[in-house]
């Protein structure tokens, strides 16, 4: 399978990966870290999708998508940390004042897992951030060792996949997800 990673500017493809089956559902749409919690709670049902459609038309779009041919098979949320909840998160520290970008969500569609899609998404997100002038990119994956991670909570990624992509451990955090500590991993792009 040849995976191509592109900017997430096609809303229907983003919807296929992070949208709900029912348009009236109040699920994540990968907005919980992207927007203030008050707005996240106010956006209900179809308004969530409409908000994401606007993000897809923005420059830069809200992340990257992995494609197998024309089929969208993976999603990664990546944006300047300053415009995300990570700018104010008390559990995930800032290691310096660099205007870093954050990569906080990786999703691979069922039927396409264990085929290298998440690795392609990480690499594509790094290139996307680099192309938009990011001096560094951070991720906040689970430090799960060899323990199994519930797929629902695996969206943050796992430490060893970021290490394979050249990220280094920059700091411990007090954030825990699915019973696993999260670590701050960083890749310098300068």
From TrEMBL:
Q: Which Gene3D superfamilies match?
A: 3.40.630.30
Name all N-acetyltransferase domain ranges.
3-190
Taxonomically, which superkingdom?
Bacteria
Q: Does the keyword Acyltransferase apply?
A: yes
Identify a single GO molecular function assigned to this protein.
acyltransferase activity
Q: Which UniProt keywords apply?
A: Acyltransferase, Transferase
Q: Which Pfam families match?
A: Acetyltransf_1 (PF00583)
What Enzyme Commission number(s) apply to this enzyme?
2.3.-.-
Name recorded for this polypeptide = GNAT family N-acetyltransferase
């Amino acid at each position: 399978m040849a995976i191509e990673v592109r900017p997430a500017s096609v809303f229907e493809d983003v919807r296929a990966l992070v949208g709900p089956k029912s348009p009236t559902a109040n699920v994540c749409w990968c907005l919980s870290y992207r927007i203030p919690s008050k707005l996240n709670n106010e956006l209900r049902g179809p308004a969530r999708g409409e908000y994401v459609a606007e993000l897809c038309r923005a420059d830069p779009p809200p992340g990257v998508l992995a494609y197998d041919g024309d089929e969208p098979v993976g999603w990664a949320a990546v944006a300047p940390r300053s415009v995300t909840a990570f700018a104010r998160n008390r559990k995930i520290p800032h290691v310096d004042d660099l205007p870093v970008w954050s990569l906080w969500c990786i999703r691979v569609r069922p039927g396409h897992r264990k085929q290298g899609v998440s690795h392609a998404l990480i690499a594509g997100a790094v290139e996307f951030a680099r192309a938009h002038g990011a001096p560094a990119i951070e991720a906040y994956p689970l430090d799960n060792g060899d323990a199994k991670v519930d797929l629902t909570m695996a969206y943050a990624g796992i430490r060893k996949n970021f290490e394979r992509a050249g990220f280094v451990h920059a700091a411990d955090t007090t954030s825990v997800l699915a019973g696993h500590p999260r670590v701050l991993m960083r890749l310098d792009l300068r």
